[in-house]
Write a structure and sequence with these properties.
It is built from 5 helices and 5 strands. It is α/β, with parallel strands linked by helices and 144 residues long. Helix 2 packs across helix 3. The two termini are 28 Å apart.
Length: 144
């Protein structure tokens, strides 16, 4: 376990209101010792960016069961514009294989599909969140 808890924002953007999966994943991460900031569904990109900045998160997890994952490239641009390019973004849910490449090219670190195990999710979020934190700390050193 790290000296300081990883901070993970679990959210849904757009009009997708199916939140059972995001609630389950939020519980997995919380039970693994991470600090989880959970939002209700129907978040706007600007609200997610503002909350990520306010809460100083290491990872943003987006759940998608409809086509709202297609908004994620807009989120990635907004994060970079806000100086949050170090924050790792992951996606879980129903994402067609043909659209995973688009998300990866936009900067999404990992897409978890149906059947992803608790162990894999926790392991990957821990590793990606640790990398995100190191990236932020090293960029903070240069800002001083």
């Amino acid at each position: 376990m790290q000296a300081e808890q990883l901070r993970v924002l679990v959210t849904k953007i757009g009009f997708d209101g199916h939140d059972r999966g995001s609630r389950v994943v939020a519980a997995y991460l919380r039970d693994a010792g991470m600090e989880v900031i959970y939002t209700p569904p129907w978040q706007e990109v600007a609200a997610v960016v503002a909350l990520a900045m306010q809460e100083d998160v290491d990872v943003i997890g987006i759940s998608s069961l409809a086509t709202d994952h297609l908004i994620i490239p807009e989120l990635m641009d907004a994060l970079r514009e806000a100086g949050l390019g170090h924050v790792t973004v992951i996606v879980g849910g129903i994402v067609p294989e043909t659209e995973i490449r688009t998300l990866s090219e936009a900067g999404v670190a990992r897409v978890f599909g149906p059947g992803a195990s608790r162990e894999d999710i926790v392991e990957q979020v821990t590793a990606l969140g640790s990398e995100s934190r190191k990236s932020k700390l090293s960029s903070d050193e240069f800002a001083i």
